[in-house]
Amino acid sequence: MERVMGGGMLQLFLASTGILLLYRILVRLRPGAALQDAVVVITGASSGLGKECARAFHAAGARLVLCGRDAGRLQQVVQELTASSTGSQRQTYTPSTVIFNLADTDTVDRAADEILKCFGQVDVLINNAGISYRGNILDTHLSVQRDVMETNYFGPIALTQALLPSMVHRRSGHIVVISSVQGKMAIPYRSAYAASKHATQAYFDCLRAEIERYGIPVTVISPGYIRTSLSVNAVTGDGSKYGVLDKTTAMGRDPRDVAQAVLKAVRQRSKDVVLAGPMPNLAIYLRTLWPALFFKLMSSRARKEQKPKAE
Ligand SMILES: NC(=O)c1ccc[n+]([C@@H]2O[C@H](COP(=O)([O-])OP(=O)(O)OC[C@H]3O[C@@H](n4cnc5c(N)ncnc54)[C@H](OP(=O)(O)O)[C@@H]3O)[C@@H](O)[C@H]2O)c1
């Protein structure tokens, strides 16, 4: 009897493994979404990952709307992209720009109207802009926690909600958000940032389920460290600029590689992508499967990293 049960279990295991493998192969073989002529909106396109996404999607033939707060820096990106198009085999387009501050959610509706006017529709919205934070909770003003939340969470969801009705109306579109591995597990001295990215993950997971029926996919991308100015631009507990290129960020992934991974995720309409090495992936699993160990490791990291000023 036991042998029969054991054989049955083995068959079930082999069958489910086979189905899983087949599913993965089919997902890989699925034709990618075409990006030639697609209208792609990228927030935070003036630097770092946003700028590299702009390069990647421009080269793929997309019609870009680049967003940021600094008109001069965005114009520089437009010029670089236009110059890079010379001799390209593809039809490429001069990007449009829309200037607005994501932290000022009252202005986002106006910005969304401006974005829609650029090419008459939005096919892919990439919510990329963001700001980081370094600080000890004991010394952090509540206003700083709120400001980071405005830029990283309320801004992107306000823009998404303003552009979504036009996608639902057309039964077409794609929402992408650049979160972080810190949207899946929280590390010490990053409270405002990790909280904003956890909120982001939760909101866009809900959105995915709610709008799937309209044929609009939602992709959450969670990278580990990327070699950009994110830590330099980060805010500290009193709201001043951190101004330091952290070693972890300096040794992070090349933003060009991450941008190619974003392009691939958009083409494959992936739902949730973690772009990180084995350690962050292990930490994410530990947080779910062995939280007691994860909390111990984080406490020890907090003790080692910094002596809280407020002690
Ligand atoms: N670098 C990393 O290690 C890392 C890891 C995981 C996830 N990420 C995520 O990747 C995304 C891109 O960051 P990055 O690494 O490329 O950093 P970055 O070089 O500092 O770029 C941030 C971009 O966001 C824009 N931005 C910031 N605040 C804004 C606001 N209030 N309104 C509108 N735009 C604003 C900036 O544009 P202006 O200043 O010109 O307005 C800039 O273009 C962020 O969401 C970040 O959380 C980064």
From TrEMBL:
GO cellular component: cytoplasm; membrane
Keyword list, A-Z: Membrane, NAD, NADP, Oxidoreductase, Transmembrane, Transmembrane helix
GO terms for biological process, alphabetical: lipid metabolic process
PANTHER family according to UniProt: DEHYDROGENASE/REDUCTASE SDR FAMILY MEMBER 7B, DEHYDROGENASE_REDUCTASE SDR FAMILY MEMBER 7B
Name assigned to this protein: Dehydrogenase/reductase SDR family member 7B
Spans through the membrane: 6-26
Family: Belongs to the short-chain dehydrogenases/reductases (SDR) family.
Protein encoded by which gene: dhrs7b
Domain Ketoreductase: 38-229
Functional description taken from the UniProt entry: Putative oxidoreductase.
Single GO MF annotation: oxidoreductase activity, acting on the CH-OH group of donors, NAD or NADP as acceptor
Domain of life: Eukaryota
